[in-house]
Fold:
Amino acid sequence: MPKPSRIATKAHLGQAVAHLLAADKRLHPVMKRAGELPFRSRREEGFEALVSIVVSQQLSVAAADTIFGRVKEKVVPFAPAELLATAPETLRACGLSAPKQKHMRSIALAIQDGTLDLERVRAMPDDDARAHLTAVKGIGPWTADIYLMASLGRADIWPVGDVGLQAAIHRALNLRKRPNEKQMEKLSKPWRPWRTVAARMFWIHEDLIRKEKRQAEAARKAVAKAGKKAKAG
Structure:
């Protein structure tokens, strides 16, 4: 079966998981804890999707969704010209910091003047697409990688600078320390051409561990509280 450059079907996802498990035995316990990876349809692509990724940087999903929802209520229709015409004070009231506003406006201007062509990005090879995106001020490697992964469904994107992914790999593979970008690239070689799926596996694995820790801590506190209450009674 040929290896697609995009994860467009459940069969592609199954093919990716089978390859990863065969290529690296260290992934077996990671996959066992993560469980069956859900097939996810691609996000919307285009200007709105790209800007939503910028908004989400260093925020929880809930906070990012809230802020972006407010922005979309003020920028109607959500398009480059309308965003550029929106007053900074209005965007600030939505919860957008000055740097994020600057990045969003830079993207809007690049689309308007043709510097950024998201239609072309769709057909470009991964490296060319990343280079085209990151040539625009306001689009860093992380933003470009998440857009290629989530909106375009690319199969072999590996966000080496994602701190959360670095931490997840550190824990999952029991490494001495968190890998840097160079080490992340080296670690990922056996996982080509399905590194997008490998990243998802590690992210889910880490989320589950953190959830279990929170639940254990909540249970511990509940027991301690019950003990204090019993003594007081």
In short: The chain is about 65% helix and 0% strand. The chain has a mean pLDDT of 93. The chain has two domains: 1-41+156-233, 47-151.
